[in-house]
Structure to design on (390 residues):
């Protein structure tokens, strides 16, 4: 016997078994109708569950895409700083994110197909349930229990087959959703571990980013350092002068001594050791520009 | 004759039993030989034949089907379970 016939027999056996349980065939109608309504609720919930799962996958796809973009950015920056090793690490991570993304795209399409199938199944079941309800009322109003048997069997077999079909569809959708959730959970974990940087979360800094930040921070420090050195070189004469007339009270008499130094700064050539000696005083000196105008107005 | 494709709905088909049986025999042979590729090809052929030759039944009919076919993306393993009648058909 072929597959088709065997599958139909399995369905028929199922329907007959349910029918045999009922003593009054008309009882079957009401009982079956209750089951149909329950199944309708279940299939609608199934549609909602698949949709939720699909949205979660969509969210992860967006996160992975952002992550991938960010990693490419990092690779570009790293290359710009001459760090090919760092760029390579970022691109390797990007490739891994991209693999996950491609995988999710396939899953997403499957979930979408599953959602559509279940939606259509729920509409078809709704039509059949409505038809069954009408048939049920007619049978109950028209026939005695004995007469009704054949018609009830027909209606019942028809709806029972549909219920089996829809039940299987729900089962498959649930299985797919469960698989998907396990996978989504794994990707969430991967993102949380920083292996695929979660560009959206932002709570965790990945090592590539921190190295890039460190490099750019150290270049900031270098820039600051040379700026300060420049300032000190410019104001070096006053340091000497200030040292001469008030180094002991340097902190309290800074403004005056600084102005004095600037006034008289011109004629004096800056002595070589000045910058290094002045280094500790560098911080107060950098306050000078703000203090100067006041002083200028005062005098 | 009414044929149901699981997950898809019912079709009324004319006198195509001979061709359906031929394809169904192929399908069964594939299941018996554990040949997933032949199984997929035979199932696709069967479904395509029913869709091409059949007219979809309106959704509010309550007629039982004469033959029932697995859904198009059913695996061989799922069909085996279906044939034993255990687990796959809820309720």
């Amino acid at each position: 016997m072929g597959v088709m016939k065997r599958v139909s027999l399995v369905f028929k056996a199922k329907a007959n078994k349910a029918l045999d349980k009922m003593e009054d065939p008309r009882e079957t109608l009401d009982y079956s109708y209750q089951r149909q309504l329950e199944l309708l609720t279940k299939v609608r919930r199934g549609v909602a569950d698949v949709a939720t799962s699909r949205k979660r996958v969509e969210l992860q796809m967006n996160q992975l895409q952002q992550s991938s973009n960010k990693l490419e950015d990092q690779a570009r920056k790293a290359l710009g700083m001459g760090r090919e090793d760092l760029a390579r690490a970022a691109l390797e991570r990007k490739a891994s994110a991209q693999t996950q993304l491609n995988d999710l795209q396939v899953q997403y399409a499957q979930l979408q197909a599953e959602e559509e199938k279940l939606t259509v199944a729920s509409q078809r079941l709704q039509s059949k349930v409505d038809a069954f309800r009408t048939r049920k009322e007619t049978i109950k109003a028209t026939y005695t229990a004995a007469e009704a048997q054949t018609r009830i069997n027909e209606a019942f077999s028809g709806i029972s087959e549909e219920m089996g079909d829809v039940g299987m569809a729900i089962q498959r959708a649930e299985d797919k959703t469960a698989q998907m959730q396990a996978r989504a959970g794994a990707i969430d974990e991967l993102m949380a571990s920083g292996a695929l940087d979660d560009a959206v979360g932002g709570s965790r800094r990945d090592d590539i980013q921190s190295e890039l930040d460190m490099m750019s921070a150290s270049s900031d420090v270098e820039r600051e350092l040379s700026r300060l050195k420049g300032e000190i070189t410019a104001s070096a004469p006053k340091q000497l002068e200030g040292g001469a007339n008030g180094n002991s009270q340097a902190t309290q008499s800074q403004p005056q001594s600084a102005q004095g130094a600037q006034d008289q700064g011109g004629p004096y050539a800056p002595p070589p050791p000045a910058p290094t000696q002045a280094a500790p005083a560098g911080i107060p000196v950098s306050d000078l520009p703000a203090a100067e105008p006041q002083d200028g107005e005062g005098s | 004759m009414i044929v149901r494709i699981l997950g898809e709905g019912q079709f009324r088909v004319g006198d195509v039993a001979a061709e359906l049986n031929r394809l169904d025999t192929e399908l069964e042979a594939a299941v018996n030989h554990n040949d997933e590729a032949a199984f997929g090809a035979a199932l696709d052929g069967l479904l395509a034949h029913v869709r091409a030759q059949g007219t979809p039944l309106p959704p509010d009919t309550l007629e039982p089907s004469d033959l029932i076919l697995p859904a198009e993306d059913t695996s061989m393993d799922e069909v085996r379970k279906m044939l034993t009648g255990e687990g796959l058909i809820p309720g």
Notes: The CA atoms of residues 30 and 60 of chain B lie 35 Å apart. The mean pLDDT of chain B is 86. The helical segments of chain B are 17-32, 36-53, 76-84.
